[in-house]
Amino acid sequence: MALTGILRPGLIQLRVTDLEKSVEHYVERIGLDEVGRDGDLVYLKGWDEFDHHSVVLRKAETAGMDFFAFKVDSDETLEHYRKRIEDAGVEVIDVAAGDQPGFGPRIAFKIPTGHRIELYAQVERAAYHPPVTNPEIVPREPRGMHASRFDHGLLYGPNVNETKDFFENVLDFSTAEQVDGEDNSTQIAIWLTCSNKAHDIAFVDYPEENKFHHIAFMLENWNEIGQAADIMSRHNISIDVGPTRHGITRGQTIYFFDPSGNRNEVFAGGYQYYPDNPTRNWTPDQLGKGIFYYERKLNDAFLSVVT
Ligand SMILES: [Fe+2]
After folding, report:
1. Residue 198 domain-assigned?
2. 141: which DSSP letter?
3. What range defines the domain where residue 107 resides?
């Protein structure tokens, strides 16, 4: 879809088991800015993001994801999607303004994979954001991997086809790419976009509900991916796979883990999607090449390690 209605992933809340080690990882290594704290919650943003924050770390007993939220373009759009979701027979839960600092009211609902997805329209501009008058290229000196923004996420759960139907027909997303199941009529993995990006959220079929595969942060190019790899080795960060490239989305990538075992990705490139693009289909025998274009096979962790 064009950039109206649902705009982009704007907020994600992750559970971490060690808050201080996690803050060091996301701020010093990945390069996000800490914008606030409230007890067991730490609020973070990328250097190229205007909104108050985009990533929340919540100290918890187990790692994983609490929710994944998309920003919409107006209060009217928020109400439009509330009705569409309710008309689809899905319960909508209201979250009061101020539940997250700087954020207006949000609506939350459960999708067929078991994940909590949210929508919101209003959020304050961050106190520290990219300049808007005679803007410098970067608002501050680069730090760590220099992640510019929260880009997308990949979630694991059952009912991928029902989830594809919900995102396409209720939330007006498009399926940019998909991996067919053995019978060609169902999919085992889908890459969905609400924007000009090759994907904003993706799902892989998995027997257990509500599992988290990775959060991805945008870097500018291959050189920054290489520099990120240097930082990972320098600080003995656990790497899953990469640097490599995805066939699906064409993105350049490294998968690695935060101190709690949540998978992270640094991502650069990827093609621009337009709503008249056809869905790109991958057959199950080419799944390895689709995910890791150079290795042409999956590693064991990709399919099995989730939080
Ligand atoms: Fe990704």
Report:
1. yes
2. -
3. 6-120
Tens of pLDDT, residue by residue over 152-209, are 999 999 999 999 999 999 999 999 999 998 877 889 999 999 999 999 999 999 999 9
Domain count for the chain? 2
CA 298, 300, 301 angle in degrees (round to 5)? 105
**Residue after which a domain boundary falls, among 120, 141, 172:** 120
Q: In angstroms, what is the span from residue 42 Cα to ligand 1's centroid?
A: 23
pLDDT of residue 2: 52
**Cβ–Cβ < 8 Å for 255, 242:** yes
**Residue with structure tokens 């003995």?**
236
Is there a domain that residue 218 lies in? yes
245-to-98, 188, 261, 285 alpha-carbon distances in Å: 40, 20, 22, 18
Q: How far apart are CA 222 and CA 229, in angstroms?
A: 11
Q: Is the pLDDT of residue 1 over 60?
A: no
Percentage of the chain lying above the pLDDT 90 cut: 93
For residue 134, being part of any structural domain is answered with no
Q: What is the CATH number of the domain that holds 229?
A: 3.10.180.10
Kindly state whether residue 271 falls inside one of the protein's structural domains. Answer: yes
Active site residues: 152, 199, 214, 246, 255, 265
- Do 184 and 259 fall into the same domain? yes
Q: Per-residue pLDDT tens for 8-44?
A: 999 999 999 999 999 999 999 999 999 999 999 999 9
Cα 302 to ligand 1 centre (Å):
11
Q: Ligand 1 centre from 267 Cα, in Å?
A: 7
